[in-house]
Design brief:
The chain contains eight helices and seven strands. Helix 1 links the parallel strand 1 and strand 2. Bound molecules: NADP nicotinamide-adenine-dinucleotide phosphate (NAP). NADP nicotinamide-adenine-dinucleotide phosphate binds next to helix 1, strand 2 and helix 4.
Length: 252
């Protein structure tokens, strides 16, 4: 039996699963049959809306509030996941807070906000969830980075550092757990229209500028990230430590 056939036995936790790319990932994993945990930080209504949509699909879903930057909140989230869902088999580290600004104006507070939500958040979640995966002898970790990690973007030193840090983190962790049937991969989305990127799409001039950087000439559809994540979760059993771009050719 292929691993995709076993999706209904798997529990997936998506950090920042209530909106944007994370929401699409949650729905994609639920469509494959997984039980899903929708983590969010500040907007319970958005998380609840996704949970209800998944329940209408006939799948199990649960939302859990936790700021991934805070270890105690992540610990409590994982304890609740174990109690209510029996553990976490698939972890998608997707949550991120974006703060930008040229270096001379970037505050230490903004730097910390970005680094803590992305890097410390991913560390915190892996720190508490990898032991559960080791116990079961199966796990899938997918970390959502960004083209900024590879190519940079003016005003994005903090974001670029955090997202590039995810790559080094993922490769080291992939090597630590490879023999235990746990894969760790990085997905690099290009341009997707979400609340995070709304400031880049607020004038026609800005839209055209961004589209010129994309060989395929359009932003991605959110499901296009979700499809790749579902593939890595349920099919890609021999793929680990990989960095896969889903960006319409932006990264060429
Ligand atoms: P978004 O629309 O801003 O949504 C962010 C989500 O993350 C929300 O569900 C939010 O929850 C949650 N979140 C933020 N900080 C959190 C924290 N500290 N703890 C827990 N949850 C937190 O973002 P997006 O555009 O979908 O981006 C999703 C991921 O893809 C991010 O890692 C982003 O860097 C990456 N990415 C996006 C693009 C793009 O074009 N959009 C491109 C490359 C990479 P609340 O609403 O409850 O606060």
């Amino acid at each position: 039996m292929g691993e995709s056939m076993e999706a209904s036995k798997k529990v997936a936790l998506v950090t920042g699963g209530s909106r944007g790319i994370g929401r699409a990932i949650v729905i994609g994993l639920a469509q494959e049959g997984a039980k899903v945990i929708v983590n969010y930080r500040s907007k319970p209504e958005a998380a609840q809306e996704v949970v209800e949509e998944i329940r209408r699909m006939g799948q199990e879903a649960l939302s859990i509030q936790a700021d991934v930057a805070h270890e105690d909140e992540v610990k409590a989230m994982v304890e609740e996941a174990v109690e209510k869902m029996g553990g976490v088999d698939i972890l998608i580290n997707n949550a991120a807070l974006h703060r930008g600004g040229r270096i001379q104006k970037l505050s230490t507070e903004d730097w910390d906000t970005v680094i803590h939500s992305v890097l410390k958040g991913t560390f915190n979640c892996c720190r508490y969830i990898v032991p559960l995966m080791l116990e079961k002898g199966w796990g899938r970790i997918i970390n959502i980075s960004s083209t900024v990690a590879l190519h940079g973007y003016p005003g994005d030193t903090a974001y670029g550092a955090a997202k590039a840090g995810l790559i080094g983190f993922s490769k080291s962790l992939a090597k630590e757990v490879a023999k235990k049937n746990i894969t760790v991969n990085v997905v690099i989305p290009g341009f997707f229209r979400t609340d995070m990127t709304a400031p880049l799409f607020d004038t026609e001039e800005k839209i055209q500028k961004e589209l010129m950087r994309i060989p395929m000439g359009r932003p991605g559809r959110l499901e296009e990230v979700a499809e790749l994540v579902s593939f890595l979760a349920f099919k890609g059993s021999y793929i680990t430590g990989a960095i896969i771009q889903v960006d319409g050719g932006m990264g060429m």
